[in-house]
Amino acid sequence: MTRGDPGPALVVCSGGLDSVTLAHRLSAEPGGVAALVTFDYGQRHRKEVDFAARCAKRLGVAHEVVDLTDVGRRIAGSALTDRTQVPDGHYSSRTMAVTVVPNRNPLMLSAAFALAGGQGLGRVAAAMHTGDHVIYPDCRPAFVDAFQAMEDTALDGVVAIRLETPFIHWSKTDIAAEAGRLGVPVAETWSCYKGEAVHCGRCGTCVERLEALHDAGVVDPTVYADRDFWRGEVARWKAGS
Protein backbone atom coordinates (compact mmCIF):
# COMPACT_ATOMS: atom_id res chain seq x y z
CA MET A 1 0.00 0.00 0.00
CA THR A 2 1.35 3.43 -0.97
CA ARG A 3 0.45 6.90 0.18
CA GLY A 4 -2.96 7.78 -1.28
CA ASP A 5 -3.67 4.10 -1.96
CA PRO A 6 -6.04 2.63 0.65
CA GLY A 7 -5.34 -0.91 -0.46
CA PRO A 8 -7.83 -3.22 -2.18
CA ALA A 9 -11.30 -3.76 -0.81
CA LEU A 10 -13.38 -6.84 -0.20
CA VAL A 11 -16.81 -5.99 -1.64
CA VAL A 12 -19.96 -7.59 -0.31
CA CYS A 13 -21.77 -8.24 -3.59
CA SER A 14 -25.20 -9.80 -3.87
CA GLY A 15 -25.34 -9.48 -7.65
CA GLY A 16 -27.90 -6.69 -7.47
CA LEU A 17 -27.69 -3.27 -9.09
CA ASP A 18 -26.40 -1.52 -5.96
CA SER A 19 -23.56 -3.86 -5.04
CA VAL A 20 -22.48 -4.47 -8.64
CA THR A 21 -22.32 -0.71 -9.19
CA LEU A 22 -20.27 -0.40 -5.99
CA ALA A 23 -17.85 -3.08 -7.22
CA HIS A 24 -17.41 -1.28 -10.54
CA ARG A 25 -16.92 2.06 -8.78
CA LEU A 26 -14.26 0.79 -6.38
CA SER A 27 -12.45 -1.14 -9.09
CA ALA A 28 -11.87 2.17 -10.88
CA GLU A 29 -10.58 3.95 -7.76
CA PRO A 30 -7.18 3.84 -5.99
CA GLY A 31 -6.81 0.58 -4.13
CA GLY A 32 -9.24 -1.26 -6.33
CA VAL A 33 -11.02 -4.48 -5.46
CA ALA A 34 -9.38 -7.64 -4.18
CA ALA A 35 -12.44 -9.86 -4.33
CA LEU A 36 -16.21 -10.03 -4.13
CA VAL A 37 -17.93 -12.02 -1.40
CA THR A 38 -21.49 -13.29 -1.79
CA PHE A 39 -23.63 -15.06 0.79
CA ASP A 40 -25.96 -17.96 0.07
CA TYR A 41 -28.39 -17.94 2.98
CA GLY A 42 -31.09 -19.97 1.28
CA GLN A 43 -32.76 -16.93 -0.26
CA ARG A 44 -35.44 -17.75 -2.80
CA HIS A 45 -33.70 -15.42 -5.25
CA ARG A 46 -30.32 -17.15 -4.84
CA LYS A 47 -29.81 -16.87 -8.58
CA GLU A 48 -28.35 -13.47 -7.65
CA VAL A 49 -25.20 -15.40 -6.67
CA ASP A 50 -24.63 -16.18 -10.36
CA PHE A 51 -24.86 -12.48 -11.23
CA ALA A 52 -22.27 -11.67 -8.58
CA ALA A 53 -20.01 -14.30 -10.14
CA ARG A 54 -20.45 -12.65 -13.52
CA CYS A 55 -19.45 -9.31 -12.02
CA ALA A 56 -16.30 -10.79 -10.48
CA LYS A 57 -15.35 -12.35 -13.81
CA ARG A 58 -15.99 -9.07 -15.62
CA LEU A 59 -13.73 -7.20 -13.18
CA GLY A 60 -11.10 -9.94 -13.13
CA VAL A 61 -11.23 -10.49 -9.37
CA ALA A 62 -11.81 -13.47 -7.11
CA HIS A 63 -15.31 -14.42 -6.02
CA GLU A 64 -15.92 -15.97 -2.61
CA VAL A 65 -19.27 -17.62 -1.88
CA VAL A 66 -20.03 -18.20 1.80
CA ASP A 67 -22.63 -20.84 2.61
CA LEU A 68 -25.03 -19.66 5.32
CA THR A 69 -27.90 -21.90 4.23
CA ASP A 70 -28.01 -23.75 7.55
CA VAL A 71 -28.53 -20.44 9.34
CA GLY A 72 -30.96 -19.17 6.72
CA ARG A 73 -33.26 -22.17 6.89
CA ARG A 74 -33.65 -21.62 10.62
CA ILE A 75 -34.84 -18.03 10.18
CA ALA A 76 -38.61 -18.07 9.88
CA GLY A 77 -40.96 -15.26 8.97
CA SER A 78 -39.08 -13.64 6.09
CA ALA A 79 -40.45 -13.79 2.56
CA LEU A 80 -36.87 -14.24 1.36
CA THR A 81 -36.20 -17.45 3.25
CA ASP A 82 -39.52 -19.23 3.70
CA ARG A 83 -42.88 -19.63 1.96
CA THR A 84 -44.23 -16.21 2.91
CA GLN A 85 -45.35 -14.49 -0.29
CA VAL A 86 -43.20 -11.65 -1.61
CA PRO A 87 -45.56 -8.66 -1.89
CA ASP A 88 -46.06 -6.54 -4.97
CA GLY A 89 -45.95 -2.77 -4.60
CA HIS A 90 -43.73 0.16 -3.77
CA TYR A 91 -40.43 -0.59 -2.03
CA SER A 92 -41.13 1.89 0.76
CA SER A 93 -44.44 0.29 1.66
CA ARG A 94 -44.67 -1.30 5.10
CA THR A 95 -45.71 -4.52 3.36
CA MET A 96 -42.04 -4.90 2.45
CA ALA A 97 -41.31 -5.54 6.13
CA VAL A 98 -41.95 -9.25 5.42
CA THR A 99 -38.66 -9.27 3.47
CA VAL A 100 -36.60 -8.46 6.57
CA VAL A 101 -34.18 -11.28 7.39
CA PRO A 102 -33.33 -10.71 11.07
CA ASN A 103 -29.66 -9.94 11.66
CA ARG A 104 -28.72 -10.60 8.04
CA ASN A 105 -26.19 -7.79 7.64
CA PRO A 106 -24.49 -8.34 11.00
CA LEU A 107 -23.99 -12.00 10.07
CA MET A 108 -22.70 -11.25 6.60
CA LEU A 109 -20.48 -8.35 7.56
CA SER A 110 -18.95 -10.28 10.47
CA ALA A 111 -18.04 -13.06 8.05
CA ALA A 112 -16.73 -10.51 5.53
CA PHE A 113 -14.52 -8.89 8.20
CA ALA A 114 -13.15 -12.33 9.12
CA LEU A 115 -12.34 -13.03 5.48
CA ALA A 116 -10.75 -9.61 5.03
CA GLY A 117 -8.62 -10.08 8.13
CA GLY A 118 -7.44 -13.47 6.95
CA GLN A 119 -6.48 -12.04 3.57
CA GLY A 120 -4.71 -9.01 5.00
CA LEU A 121 -7.26 -6.54 3.64
CA GLY A 122 -8.10 -3.33 5.45
CA ARG A 123 -11.39 -2.49 3.75
CA VAL A 124 -14.82 -4.11 3.49
CA ALA A 125 -17.37 -2.32 1.30
CA ALA A 126 -21.15 -2.67 1.26
CA ALA A 127 -23.86 -0.93 -0.75
CA MET A 128 -26.55 0.17 1.71
CA HIS A 129 -28.43 3.28 0.57
CA THR A 130 -31.19 5.61 1.77
CA GLY A 131 -33.97 3.55 0.19
CA ASP A 132 -33.04 0.67 2.50
CA HIS A 133 -33.30 2.77 5.66
CA VAL A 134 -37.10 2.67 5.89
CA ILE A 135 -37.45 -1.11 6.01
CA TYR A 136 -34.10 -2.54 7.09
CA PRO A 137 -32.62 -1.41 10.42
CA ASP A 138 -29.27 -3.03 9.61
CA CYS A 139 -28.85 -0.75 6.60
CA ARG A 140 -29.05 2.53 8.50
CA PRO A 141 -26.14 4.85 9.33
CA ALA A 142 -26.56 4.12 13.05
CA PHE A 143 -26.01 0.42 12.37
CA VAL A 144 -22.92 1.10 10.26
CA ASP A 145 -21.40 3.22 13.03
CA ALA A 146 -22.26 0.66 15.71
CA PHE A 147 -20.91 -2.24 13.65
CA GLN A 148 -17.63 -0.42 13.03
CA ALA A 149 -17.30 0.29 16.75
CA MET A 150 -17.93 -3.38 17.53
CA GLU A 151 -15.29 -4.54 15.03
CA ASP A 152 -12.79 -1.98 16.29
CA THR A 153 -13.21 -3.53 19.72
CA ALA A 154 -13.21 -7.11 18.48
CA LEU A 155 -10.04 -6.60 16.43
CA ASP A 156 -8.23 -4.23 18.77
CA GLY A 157 -4.51 -4.90 18.54
CA VAL A 158 -5.02 -7.54 15.83
CA VAL A 159 -5.90 -5.78 12.59
CA ALA A 160 -7.63 -2.58 11.47
CA ILE A 161 -10.47 -3.00 8.98
CA ARG A 162 -12.73 -0.18 7.84
CA LEU A 163 -16.34 -0.64 6.74
CA GLU A 164 -16.98 1.55 3.71
CA THR A 165 -20.55 2.41 2.70
CA PRO A 166 -20.19 5.13 0.05
CA PHE A 167 -23.86 4.92 -0.94
CA ILE A 168 -25.25 5.24 2.60
CA HIS A 169 -26.63 8.74 1.89
CA TRP A 170 -27.44 8.11 -1.77
CA SER A 171 -30.84 7.41 -3.26
CA LYS A 172 -31.50 4.49 -5.57
CA THR A 173 -31.67 6.99 -8.44
CA ASP A 174 -28.20 8.27 -7.51
CA ILE A 175 -26.89 4.70 -7.72
CA ALA A 176 -28.64 4.11 -11.04
CA ALA A 177 -27.04 7.27 -12.41
CA GLU A 178 -23.65 6.06 -11.19
CA ALA A 179 -24.24 2.74 -12.92
CA GLY A 180 -24.90 4.64 -16.14
CA ARG A 181 -21.77 6.77 -15.69
CA LEU A 182 -19.62 3.72 -15.10
CA GLY A 183 -21.13 1.72 -17.94
CA VAL A 184 -22.39 -1.03 -15.65
CA PRO A 185 -24.32 -3.63 -17.70
CA VAL A 186 -27.55 -3.31 -15.72
CA ALA A 187 -29.12 -6.35 -17.39
CA GLU A 188 -26.29 -8.35 -15.83
CA THR A 189 -27.59 -7.60 -12.33
CA TRP A 190 -30.39 -9.33 -10.44
CA SER A 191 -32.79 -7.49 -8.14
CA CYS A 192 -36.11 -9.39 -8.12
CA TYR A 193 -36.98 -11.03 -4.80
CA LYS A 194 -39.20 -13.65 -6.46
CA GLY A 195 -36.29 -15.36 -8.20
CA GLU A 196 -38.22 -16.55 -11.24
CA ALA A 197 -36.98 -16.89 -14.83
CA VAL A 198 -37.03 -13.11 -15.38
CA HIS A 199 -37.57 -10.07 -13.16
CA CYS A 200 -41.25 -9.94 -12.19
CA GLY A 201 -41.48 -6.14 -12.48
CA ARG A 202 -44.00 -6.01 -9.63
CA CYS A 203 -42.22 -6.70 -6.34
CA GLY A 204 -40.81 -3.82 -4.32
CA THR A 205 -37.25 -4.25 -5.56
CA CYS A 206 -38.34 -4.41 -9.19
CA VAL A 207 -40.51 -1.30 -8.79
CA GLU A 208 -37.66 0.56 -7.12
CA ARG A 209 -35.18 -0.58 -9.78
CA LEU A 210 -37.40 0.41 -12.72
CA GLU A 211 -38.24 3.79 -11.18
CA ALA A 212 -34.59 4.58 -10.41
CA LEU A 213 -33.22 3.62 -13.81
CA HIS A 214 -36.00 5.59 -15.51
CA ASP A 215 -35.44 8.68 -13.35
CA ALA A 216 -31.68 8.48 -13.92
CA GLY A 217 -32.16 8.23 -17.69
CA VAL A 218 -30.30 4.92 -17.87
CA VAL A 219 -31.25 2.51 -20.64
CA ASP A 220 -32.49 -0.73 -19.08
CA PRO A 221 -32.49 -3.76 -21.38
CA THR A 222 -33.49 -6.08 -18.52
CA VAL A 223 -36.39 -8.41 -19.31
CA TYR A 224 -39.38 -7.99 -16.97
CA ALA A 225 -42.55 -10.04 -16.86
CA ASP A 226 -44.42 -6.76 -16.30
CA ARG A 227 -42.49 -3.67 -17.35
CA ASP A 228 -45.31 -1.16 -16.79
CA PHE A 229 -46.71 -1.99 -13.34
CA TRP A 230 -44.21 0.30 -11.60
CA ARG A 231 -45.61 3.45 -13.23
CA GLY A 232 -49.05 3.10 -11.69
CA GLU A 233 -47.64 1.92 -8.39
CA VAL A 234 -45.30 4.91 -8.09
CA ALA A 235 -48.12 7.30 -9.05
CA ARG A 236 -50.37 5.76 -6.36
CA TRP A 237 -47.59 5.93 -3.78
CA LYS A 238 -46.85 9.57 -4.49
CA ALA A 239 -50.55 10.46 -4.39
CA GLY A 240 -50.87 8.86 -0.97
CA SER A 241 -47.63 10.19 0.53
Automatic annotation (TrEMBL):
Cofactor(s) listed: Zn(2+)
Does the entry feature the keyword Metal-binding, yes or no?
A: yes
Write down the top EC class of this protein.
Answer: ligase
Associated pathway? Purine metabolism; 7-cyano-7-deazaguanine biosynthesis
Record EC number: 6.3.4.20
Please list the reactions this protein catalyses: 7-carboxy-7-carbaguanine + NH4(+) + 2 ATP = 7-cyano-7-carbaguanine + 2 AMP + 2 diphosphate + 2 H(+)
What does the note accompanying the cofactor annotation read? Binds 1 zinc ion per subunit.
SUPFAM superfamilies reported for this sequence: Adenine nucleotide alpha hydrolases-like
Q: Which UniProt keywords apply?
A: ATP-binding, Ligase, Metal-binding, Nucleotide-binding, Queuosine biosynthesis, Zinc
Q: Where does Zn(2+) bind?
A: 192, 200, 203, 206
CDD domains registered for this protein in UniProt: QueC-like
Q: Which Pfam families match?
A: QueC (PF06508)
Q: Where does ATP bind?
A: 13-23
- Alphabetical list of InterPro entries matching this protein: QueC, Rossmann-like_a/b/a_fold
According to its UniProt record, which protein family does this protein belong to?
A: Belongs to the QueC family.
The protein's job, in short, is: Catalyzes the ATP-dependent conversion of 7-carboxy-7-deazaguanine (CDG) to 7-cyano-7-deazaguanine (preQ(0)).
- Provide the protein name: 7-cyano-7-deazaguanine synthase
Which species is this record about? Rhodovibrio sodomensis
